[in-house]
Amino acid sequence: QVQLVESGGGLVQAGGSLRLSCKVSGRSMSVYNMGWFRRAPGKERESVAAMNSSGGSTYYADSVKDRFTISRDNAKNTLYLQMNSLKPEDTAVYYCAAKSLFQKDYVYWGQGTQVTISS
What is the Cα–Cα distance from 67 to 17, expressed in whole angstroms? Predict the structure, then answer.
């Protein structure tokens, strides 16, 4: 069974930085396209960033472009999200997710990590 565990969330002031990690276990992460999502209070879950299995293709939501960077270390089975210039509106629970090359939707999800940005 594939399991994803996020870490690295916390409380920081606006303008600060955080790095989220997502440790994958149960299978090599190299076969999965990976993504970061977030859900803010009272809002729907939204896609933040994504990266294909090889790391050669990335996607960023407009709201985080030039501030967030997604990366992966397949040898460590870990996905990262470097978040810089954080804003109060980035406050949310952040989730990582995985899907195989043949799956349309993300099927494996972590439990989430809380990110709170104070103004």
Answer: 9
pLDDT at res. 101: 85
> Phi-psi region for residue 101, left (φ > 0), alpha (ψ -120 to 50) or beta?
alpha
- pLDDT of 67 over the 90 cut: yes
Residue 28 CA to residue 39 CA, distance in Å, equals 27
Exposed/middle/buried for 8, CB within 10 Å: 0-12, 13-18, 19+? middle
